[in-house]
């Protein structure tokens, strides 16, 4: 039996050794790159990485019981069990009264929106209170999925190309302006790859997928902003500006009398995220008659919710602006050849002649230009410049061949 297992053990050992050699080779090649591998741009990372991290931190913050205690604690004088009242008001939600939002706290109202309510009073329900953490987490996951989708579509293309080129970029002992070893073998492999990718239009699909993910990020920001506005009863659209305007317009109370002066403005944070709210319970007495019980509930998480959503508002506006510029940039480079020529020269820090950049741009598709731009961020300048020179020569030779045949 052990004799039969011997070849299997040897095969597994050989495969493990081969995998270790491949990993060491990839690490060695990756070490030749001047920067960490980049398969996207700053706008994309702001959406898919930083937004996910920030929203996940916000979700963790609003659910941190050790900092803010229980999410809801209700006070009642009806003899009902406190825990039962807390659970009831947590499930069915709390409310505030609209006409009491402008009262003087401590004299006219217990808190903004908390005072005696009449039958005809307009009230604001706050049933979204228990869903804040989940909504923030789902928003962050939506941005993460967008980044994961691009990584799946990218499929390691930039890593393979940059490793191939980085392997050719080791410094030679012979001095020279571009003293990197660029063998004919590497040149033929790279040019053959670009020729094959041109026939299969693989780079066109690569660039189209990235543009699709950029559009998805923009639509996610716009859609999530609208969903948050719906989630928060139509008050999120102007929440950030309203909160900032209210805070800047509030004078500091230098005396107790000024502190209790009535204000004509409603605090948008207290309106949307009250720290104190009312809760009404209906029970039946011993004779079967309906009894109404009022409870005053402390919503401790709203201390941080009001600030978190101010930050989320400004962050989403910032993402919307960044995403808009990213889409405008993408349309310009897709439709305007002069922009691609300018950016191709900029990727070589101006060392590429304008005529050569024009020849490369005219001879290549947008997808090939896009891949070349990504490569400029992942290989050394000397290797990248040599790649462009050889590709321009290859495109020129192909053009002469096709012209001669026709």
From TrEMBL:
InterPro entries: Innexin (IPR000990). The chain crosses the membrane at residues 308-332. One of its GO terms (cellular component) is plasma membrane. It is a multi-pass membrane protein. One of its GO terms (biological process) is monoatomic ion transmembrane transport. PROSITE patterns: PANNEXIN (PS51013). It is found in: Cell junction, Gap junction; Cell membrane. Keywords: Cell junction, Cell membrane, Gap junction, Ion channel, Ion transport, Membrane, Transmembrane, Transmembrane helix, Transport. Structural component of the gap junctions. Belongs to the pannexin family. This is Innexin. It comes from Trichogramma kaykai.
């Amino acid at each position: 039996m052990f004799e039969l297992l011997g070849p299997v053990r040897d095969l597994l050992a050989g495969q493990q050794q081969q995998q270790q050699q491949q990993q060491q080779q990839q690490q060695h090649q990756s070490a030749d790159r001047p920067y960490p591998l980049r398969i996207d741009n700053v706008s994309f990372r702001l959406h898919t990485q930083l937004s996910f991290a920030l929203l996940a931190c916000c979700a963790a913050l609003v659910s941190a019981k050790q900092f803010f205690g229980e999410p809801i604690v209700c006070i009642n004088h009806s003899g009902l069990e406190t825990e039962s009242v807390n659970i009831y008001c947590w499930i069915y939600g709390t409310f505030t009264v609209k006409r009491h939002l402008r009262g003087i706290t401590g004299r006219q109202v217990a808190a903004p929106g908390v005072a005696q309510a009449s039958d005809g009073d307009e009230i604001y329900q706050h049933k979204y209170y228990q869903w804040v953490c989940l909504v923030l987490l789902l928003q962050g996951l939506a941005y993460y999925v967008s980044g994961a989708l691009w990584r799946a579509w990218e499929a390691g293309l930039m890593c393979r190309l940059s490793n191939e080129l980085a392997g050719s970029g080791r410094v030679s002992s012979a001095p020279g302006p571009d003293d990197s070893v660029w063998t004919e073998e590497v040149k033929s492999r790279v040019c053959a790859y670009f020729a094959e990718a041109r026939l299969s239009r693989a780079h066109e699909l690569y660039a189209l997928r990235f543009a699709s993910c950029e559009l998805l990020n923009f639509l996610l920001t716009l859609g999530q902003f609208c969903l948050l506005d719906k989630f928060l009863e139509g008050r999120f659209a102007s929440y950030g500006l309203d909160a900032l305007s209210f805070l800047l317009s509030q004078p500091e109370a230098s005396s107790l009398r000024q502190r209790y002066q009535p204000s004509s403005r409603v605090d948008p944070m207290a309106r949307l995220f009250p720290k104190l709210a009312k809760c009404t319970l209906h029970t039946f007495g011993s004779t079967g008659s309906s009894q109404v019980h009022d409870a005053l509930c402390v919503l401790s998480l709203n201390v941080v919710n009001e600030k978190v959503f101010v930050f989320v508002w400004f962050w989403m506006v910032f993402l919307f602006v960044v995403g808009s510029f990213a889409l405008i940039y993408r349309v310009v480079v897709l439709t305007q050849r002069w922009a691609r020529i300018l950016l191709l020269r900029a990727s070589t820090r101006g060392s590429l002649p304008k005529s050569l950049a024009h020849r490369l741009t005219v001879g290549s598709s947008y997808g090939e230009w896009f891949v070349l731009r990504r490569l400029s961020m992942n290989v050394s300048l000397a290797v990248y410049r040599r790649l462009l020179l050889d590709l321009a020569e290859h495109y020129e030779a192909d053009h002469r061949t096709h012209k001669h045949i026709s």
